[in-house]
Specification:
The chain is an all-alpha fold. The protein has one domain: Orthogonal Bundle (ABC transporter involved in vitamin B12 uptake, BtuC). Helix content is 72%, strand content 1%. The protein is built from 13 helices and 2 strands. A two-stranded antiparallel sheet has the order 1-2. The longest helix has 29 residues.
């Protein structure tokens, strides 16, 4: 491991310590702490979606559906199944992680089901399949009165903390990074370039797709579980197409095929959207804008518009197909340097 990667450990330890110190000593107000929690959850969602849309080159619109499954399964466990006599400390340290993992596993099972249509469909057709999956999830939950139906589900304790979000975001980035640089991750990259050629050179594309969808869906379910236990109320309407568009903007703003890009995109978009909400609130108090009802709703126009502009003018995003050195294993950075050196040497020795 290189010196820069060794430096990562003390930085992460300091950041992890801050996630305990900030709420304990009130170093930041509750509003800013909540925004930081949302940033962490969106990082999990963006990094996991980038595995499908960025690294494997597919186009999935079902991520909010996986998030819904994780949110509802974990919430049902903490509200109805797990005992409430253990106290807040034991619930937070033992039962909540179990509920989060269970939500992730339920979403992973759904990801396994969605992976099979990807064997025969790609591009726009796969987007339609995953969008239909998302709509099915929303419709099913809306029609189950036992869990609140369209009214939503509530009763969860606020178990999501900055520490848990930081830890799960770190696990998501580490797990997906290791998958990308494994032989299966190489297969995902080859599918992005040309799936037919990948089959011809003996890449088991079906296995790669199954693994990618399952891992991506698992962390989307984890993000949903964390989201439910910070909001303490979930409704099917939260997980409609608008939620998918938010995640797509984060991925394409930060850059496809880049974990660092997903982190940048999720943080930037979450903070910008919140600043826009504050600005529209302030604008709504100034005549003649006071005459416009529900001015804050217009911030939701920004996400689709921003996605369109990104796809036209900057389809690869800020870090598209590039990565921070801290996320790249030494062998890959060394191989890239050798390849670049050999290419320069070949160009220098070639006749004009």
């Amino acid at each position: 491991m290189g010196n820069r990667q060794w430096l990562l450990f003390p930085i992460l330890l300091v950041l992890f310590a801050l996630t305990f110190l900030i709420p304990h000593y009130g170093l930041l107000n509750d509003y800013i702490q909540l925004i930081l929690i949302y940033v962490g959850i969106n990082i999990i969602m963006a990094v996991s979606l980038n595995l499908i849309n960025g690294y494997m080159g597919e186009f999935s619109l079902g991520h909010a559906g996986f998030m819904l499954i994780g949110a509802y399964v974990s919430s049902i466990l903490t509200v109805w199944v797990f005992p409430h006599t253990w106290g807040p400390t034991m619930t937070s340290l033992v039962l909540f992680p179990i509920a989060v993992i269970a939500g992730g596993l339920a979403a992973a099972l759904a990801g396994l089901i969605v992976a099979f249509p990807s064997f025969k469909t790609r591009g726009d057709y796969l987007a339609l399949v995953t969008l239909a999956f998302n709509m099915i999830c929303v419709s099913v939950v809306q029609n189950i009165e036992a869990i609140g139906g369209g009214r939503g589900f509530m009763g969860m304790d606020k178990l999501t903390t900055m520490s848990w979000v930081f830890l799960w975001a770190l696990i998501a980035a580490w797990a997906i990074r290791n998958f990308i640089y494994s032989k299966f991750g190489r297969g995902a990259l080859s599918i992005r370039e040309d799936e037919t050629v990948s089959d011809l050179v003996s890449v088991n594309t079906k296995t790669v797709k199954i693994l990618a969808f399952v891992i991506s869906a698992f962390f989307a379910g984890v993000g949903g579980a964390l989201f439910a236990h910070v909001l303490q109320f979930i409704t099917p309407k939260t997980f409609v197409i608008q939620k998918n568009i938010d995640f797509l903007v984060m991925v394409y703003m930060g850059g496809i095929g880049s974990i660092g890009g997903s982190i940048l995109g999720a943080a930037t978009y979450t903070i910008l959207l919140e600043l826009l909400r504050e600005a529209l609130q302030l604008l709504g108090t100034i005549p003649p804008f006071t005459l416009i009802p529900s001015l804050e709703i217009w911030r939701w126009v920004v996400a689709p518009l921003l996605l369109i502009l990104l796809m036209i003018f900057q389809p690869k995003g800020i870090m598209g197909l590039r990565e921070f050195g801290l996320f790249v294993p030494n062998r890959d950075r060394f191989g890239a340097r050798l390849w670049l050196k050999k290419r320069k040497s070949t160009n220098a020795n070639s006749p004009d």
